[in-house]
## 1
Amino acid sequence: MDQLAGAVRRCGNPVVVGLDPRWEQLPAPLTNAMLGEPQERAGAYLAFCQQIIDVVAPLVPAVKPQAAFFEELGPVGMTALGTVIRYAQDQGLLVILDGKRNDIGSTAEAYARGWLGRRDSPWGADSLTVSPYLGEDSLTPFVNVATQRSAGLFVLVKTSNPGGGLLQDLVADELCVYRHVAELVDRLSAETVGECGYGIVGAVAGATYPEQLAELRQAMPHTWFLVPGFGSQGGGAADVAGGFDEQGLGAVVNSSRGIIFAHQREEYRGKYDDSQWQRAVEEATHDMIAQLQEGTPVGQLSRKLP
Amino acid sequence: MDQLAGAVRRCGNPVVVGLDPRWEQLPAPLTNAMLGEPQERAGAYLAFCQQIIDVVAPLVPAVKPQAAFFEELGPVGMTALGTVIRYAQDQGLLVILDGKRNDIGSTAEAYARGWLGRRDSPWGADSLTVSPYLGEDSLTPFVNVATQRSAGLFVLVKTSNPGGGLLQDLVADELCVYRHVAELVDRLSAETVGECGYGIVGAVAGATYPEQLAELRQAMPHTWFLVPGFGSQGGGAADVAGGFDEQGLGAVVNSSRGIIFAHQREEYRGKYDDSQWQRAVEEATHDMIAQLQEGTPVGQLSRKLP
């Protein structure tokens, strides 16, 4: 998380751009005359992600490729995913791989060894999202590998979807299930606290539940947050404000569709045609940065910059 | 689940062979003179899995490749995984892909579209394991795709690892968390019941918790079980007996290490040398089949065969 904190300070914002390529929504110039076969799609996804990275790399600290859209294409998609990860890092970005992986013991370790660490793993991501249903002994293998490789994790705690509450909001021993998970995650993170004050085990906590996000900020003092649900899922700057500490650190905020498919948003449609989709991406990124700098403690960061 | 029930009846047993290739444990003839680079490993994993499939295809209804060990190798591993899935199906086996995937909405759908369905998806698995932490709206996209493609799912309910209880055994509204998940899964499955009496949404329930397995059998009348934890994780025939219905259907039992690395087990070591590792696989499979036929309602099945 020291690397992430450094990148957030350097950029003066905590924006993570989610790379969720969806065939139906790609800008027309990238899919023209294509039939949509897996090999073609993989090529288009790669070009799309690289061209987004070209735009956002000077602006934001990290990108978050979504494994599902690449996996959907089979092995050719996975090859494209590997190329996207390396490309993003070559442009100076940190890469949070959104894979929501989990398993037990040595199987969890295999996932961790595969995904985590730039030099030591074939995929080379800087961090990985992990699901907690299997409990502590399913998380520790990820923590051990991440520790060895200066990588990070984000464990699902309170997710942004409406149905997440079914399980996460059940109350046991006077605490919601997500608070039990939060306790475990913060304990694991406390053992690996770096210079920035946060440990390597982060938490996913959605922008769509602002009260719970602020509650978790109090309950998880050692845990950096990855906050999805900004923009198209309905979360705004006021909703994510409670996720930050007083210095404007402690959280990164993800937007996927709102940025990468900005060319389809009402406010940019009239302004840019399909061939100018990258300019819509750039403007949407600047907009989100401005919203967070105005409406959250993130403003503290940019004021400190020269 | 009708396909699975049919295969179980045909074979007279519910054994699933877990394909968990681990580099350190591969039989020496498959790794001789190799350095362990990803490309080499992927080739060795493929050969290993194919040679296991050659042995077990005439004996058991299904195999369960573990995605993690292939993912660990990067894109070359994923390509090998695709080949393993197709090879197993060509030999007449059903393929349960153990990926423990999950996400929300259209992202979950991308995973489902990628993995599920022989004809319609690039990976082509017959079913997929899924994690439930994100709730009902994360499961329904998988259910919808599986329904359209005559494929199946196995949702994690009560896992076999010691730490699973941390979250799964929390008591909320007088029921353990895993029972809440069980209720959801059985409700989803009830909507898709086939001729065999079970729906397409199965549940993972470990052999290491025999009482809970029997309790779940009662609580989930529409749900087929995938039972891990047999053999090297400590579960025996008596432990899994409660997972079956009176006809000997309603559950398949997975063994990974106990079968695929049988050449390293005390009882087979003296009998077969490393070059005869496939004979150890064959004998271990027969042993497991016999244990289940003697110690569980599965005996009912074989007595019905000609």
Note: Strands of chain B lie at 15-19, 62-65, 94-101, 127-130, 152-158, 171-172, 175-176, 201-205, 225-227, 251-255.
## 2
Amino acid sequence: MAKQKKAPRPKAITPKGFRDYFGAEVSDRAEMLHQIAGVYHRYGFEALESSAVETVEALGKFLPDVDRPNEGVFAWQEFDENDTEGKRGDWMALRYDLTAPLARVYAQHRNDLPTPYRRYAMGPVWRNEKPGPGRYRQFYQCDADTVGTASMAADAEICAMLSDTLETVGIPRGDYLVRVNNRKVLNGVLEAMGLPEGEGARDNVLRTIDKFDKVGEAGVRALLTKGRLDASGAYIDGVGLSEDQAEPVLAFLTSKADDVSKTFENLRGAVGASAIGGEGIAELEQIGELLAAGGYGADRIEIDPSVVRGLGYYTGPVFEAELTFEIFDEKGRKRQFGSVSGGGRYDDLVKRFTGQAVPATGVSIGVDRLLAALREKGRMGGRATGPVVVTVMDRDRMADYQAMVAELRNAGIRAEVYLGNPKNFGNQLKYADKRNSPIAVIEGGDEKEQGIVQIKDLILGAKIAESATLEEWKERPSQFEVPRGDLVAKVREILDGQGV
Amino acid sequence: MAKQKKAPRPKAITPKGFRDYFGAEVSDRAEMLHQIAGVYHRYGFEALESSAVETVEALGKFLPDVDRPNEGVFAWQEFDENDTEGKRGDWMALRYDLTAPLARVYAQHRNDLPTPYRRYAMGPVWRNEKPGPGRYRQFYQCDADTVGTASMAADAEICAMLSDTLETVGIPRGDYLVRVNNRKVLNGVLEAMGLPEGEGARDNVLRTIDKFDKVGEAGVRALLTKGRLDASGAYIDGVGLSEDQAEPVLAFLTSKADDVSKTFENLRGAVGASAIGGEGIAELEQIGELLAAGGYGADRIEIDPSVVRGLGYYTGPVFEAELTFEIFDEKGRKRQFGSVSGGGRYDDLVKRFTGQAVPATGVSIGVDRLLAALREKGRMGGRATGPVVVTVMDRDRMADYQAMVAELRNAGIRAEVYLGNPKNFGNQLKYADKRNSPIAVIEGGDEKEQGIVQIKDLILGAKIAESATLEEWKERPSQFEVPRGDLVAKVREILDGQGV
């Protein structure tokens, strides 16, 4: 008889494009989202957690970011239990953002929800895309939207909230700027240029403007007219406008002046007699006034027509939060940290369900980028501190050690007893090191008899080991012998000294 | 030419078995998980967030709860991009619990993780099951596990942590009990009875014991022997043991005495000379000692062999947290709230990946049940309080109203300006009502001129409206006229008076 072949062991790996998050990666993010939720709540926004799974029908195809090569979702076909002939049911999919589910929720529950409906949502979204370095198929989004009002007060409020949020999580004033633009002003410019609506010329101009951040004023001028050589030496065709025709677009993009009233004057010049352009400028003026009334000056939020991100997607005001402090990129060059959040006003999101257009405006925070920024600023995730480790010198006295950690925890101190094999004491200290423990507590038989414990300052110990030649360090004790009754107080004292 | 038919509008519904969570449902849960994470962190546990998507291969089929009719997962086949001939790739699935991913993560990262590895995880899981009333296909789990140690100190620590957790989220001591049993003791009983290992007799006894909570001592006795009539009148066959044979099982289940040393004496009687049984009792004794050393007495954690939940799944200690206060069930009968958490020691979870058995112990909190319990205790989700609503009396003075909400928010008060159509003032008050607003602020042209604002106490107003005949209420003003400069102070005073 042939031997039965054993099934091979399963591979312990995440699916391609997915990853796990450990320790401070998880708790730092949770803490940041907790702080953001606090600000949103203070602004009257209500939490919403929609299901991660939607019908493909409800989800639709509304990925705003058209640059992505593959706008796929993770989808599967439901098995229909009522049909015994093996008929399959609806297609379901994981949500790819938090906006499409908001549209579904608002359409479904609009009679029960207040109007306007202010809601925030935080959670993972999934994209069935080719993964790349730093690009995962599951990531967090954090959105706030106001549905059901065309009032510019809703847009102004979201800008103010974004400013408050950044300061609350730890980006100081002066290190960020919320910049506001308006798609209607651009439409006015295109109208003033005599470019017809619909597919074609306007879209070409929009696509070109989108490169403003990358290629700058001269680049956009070339691309709007005859074209240009790109960095690789390839020739990029131009849109074919004359220099004169291109001028209003460039005037729009560069209209920002030191004085906001001068900015508006420039914009009025760029849109000429266009009604939609005038409307856009009036909207920006309203937002400016409302923000000024709330005490939000140009040091926090400014009107800036050079904001191009999202102009192709949004229908009215567009906002972006940029972090203005400098970091070194992977090539060692200094550059601004850049955008961590964007948003704007959009229409027709709910219309596909109900037939009625519902005005809405909202903002999305790039959770991972903001976390990275906070790490850059040293506001988060320096040396993540592990627990105080109570070592086990005598396996039979586990109860004594358990009593110690209970005392420490009751005093609010993070602490654990070593639970591995206690035979080799060196392993216990290696474990404490792997855990980033600030302190190890030791109580052998002798100490027990004398009613004392040894407390080892591991952070100081590491410093001494690093700079063993420095007399200054050598003379500082990193291990203390204290009466058992003083355990908690001494640990607290050392932790305070470590600034933990 | 035929008219082009428009595609029908998509239905705005969640897929069957899924639901949305609104407002306090979301924020109460987030707050509770935040508190729980705090306790776990203090105990030295590290956060882990694994991906929601796993390969079906890694996930395996390890649903612990064998009573579920359909242990399905939501799965789909990956498209293999490297194969242009339409070949499909791996099967992927949404995780159905947090334990299977822990096994995969530990196997994958074991060289980088500390040993033992204490981790907690919180998040949604998905089950492709027939939905029912109150039973959804996406729900939250909240787990803590210690992987890589056989020490009973790990089990004791988890029981202590569970006790601390319940008190931290708002279940007072005396309203809960963590009960501990041990599968090995039961194995000892079965061994003492002479029941052979492997499929068959022992499994039948285990399945019968599982009904102890439902049918009680007499019911289990009948089911172990000749069988019994169930409530519907159907005859349920018995396991076929003699009365004498059934006795040790019943002695085990009812061995709990007022004095824990008496409980242990009873258990020793039930297991007789069985080595495994003796081991189980020694483990329980160790857990008891360690907990006593940490100050956890029988008012919080007790050894109780009548805990049967999980005995079939776990391999050593088994724990369960029960809420002991009484509630009224849907039929108006008083009953104990019951279990909100369970766990125990399990082996071989990692073995399917690595071939090596790794001991582990852990606990899972029923997030939704614990939230329901907190609501029962009035610790959460009474009248969820909405924001202060600043009404709009004059559309052109939106900036004034914006300044008011900014002042209120800067003072930490939840506030919003009315953003709907302000024409009908009644609609603004209806909106405030829908938002559960505690206060409405009113500043019309006259007030503006006089430098005052009207502040309406909506909660008091509602009380007056409810009991309009009571002179007491009538005489109390529910609307106040205060100088504009006193807005924040007066709102704060009213909120404090409302106990908000």
Note: Residues 24-42 of chain B form the longest helix (19 residues).
